[in-house]
Amino acid sequence: MSTIKRRLFALFQAHPGVFLSGEEAAKELECSRAAIWKHVKELQSEGFAIEAVNRKGYRLVSVPEAMTENSLLAGMETTVFGQFVHLYEALPSTQTRLLELVQQGAPEGTIVLTNEQTSGRGRLQRAWHGGKNKNIAMSVLVKPNLPLHIAPQLTLLMAVAVADALEAVTDVSCQIKWPNDVHMSTKKVAGILTETISEPDRVIAAIIGIGINVNEPEDAFPEDIRNKATSLVSQTGKEFSRMAVVQHICSSFERLYSAYRVEGFDPIRLLWEARAETIGKRVSVQGVDGVVTGLSTNGSLKVKAENGIEHQVYTTDIGH
């Protein structure tokens, strides 16, 4: 969305149901009335219902239901995350595309989405399955300027944000499995992958990828994951607006990330632990058998062995 078009839409949002004359809008946006007319026509062609009445001006009636860059922006209740949207019909990987945009100077908060991801990857280069126009494949750009050793905190923060957002949309309880999965009814509904750009010991930028099974039923999944994965439609029996889910995630992440920048990791740690499937459970990880006691301040998993020694575990799978 161009700068003028974005500001024109914001102007409509600031005056719900009110007619704005072309002259008023042009004065506010410091452009010509012809430019206002042009951008109104463009918005209309994109599915925005805008009423035009002689001697009254224009007013926004409704926004399109289909997920487009502009309709996503229209419903974003954020100031940073999701304010720059790149939506593609198909991509090999949203992570790879967002990395390209970072190299072109993309600002913090930029998100990349695709209706079909053909070579999606998860942690440890595992493939991510997803049907066209059924699920969410998105990547979010963060520029935290954090010490490299606490970079895992970003994945944990996003896991809490996704869990909060999915609960708000579905009213179904979500749990988090170490280190990057969100579960519903003990099955994986979402996964998170964080890739960092650092120099020398600080994270300059992080690309956080999110894959969510939304409207694809479990019986459509590959046979080898049907007993491990689920979707919002399988959990609730109804389909959901992918656009609304994305908007909820951006809002949830922005709220938690803002708190994290001010208050540090401890509030996020407590929220993560409250949702963790593994707290208090016996696990086997990195050659250690013990009980999970929580998260450390740097974001690693704490496992207390039988001999009483507490170990810190970084990104890896755990066996129950």
TrEMBL record:
Keyword annotations of the record: ATP-binding, Biotin, DNA-binding, Ligase, Nucleotide-binding, Repressor, Transcription, Transcription regulation
InterPro entries: aa-tRNA-synth_II/BPL/LPL, Bifunct_BirA, Biotin_CoA_COase_ligase, BPL_LPL_catalytic, HTH_11, WH-like_DNA-bd_sf, WH_DNA-bd_sf
Entry annotated with the keyword Nucleotide-binding: yes
One function term, GO molecular function aspect: ATP binding
GO biological process: protein lipoylation; regulation of DNA-templated transcription
Binding-site residues, biotin: 117, 121-123, 188
The keyword GTP-binding appears for this protein: no
Its biological purpose: Acts both as a biotin--[acetyl-CoA-carboxylase] ligase and a repressor.
CDD domains per the UniProt record, alphabetical: BPL (cd16442)
Name of the featured protein: Bifunctional ligase/repressor BirA
Family, as annotated: Belongs to the biotin--protein ligase family.
Gene giving rise to this polypeptide: birA
Superkingdom of source: Bacteria
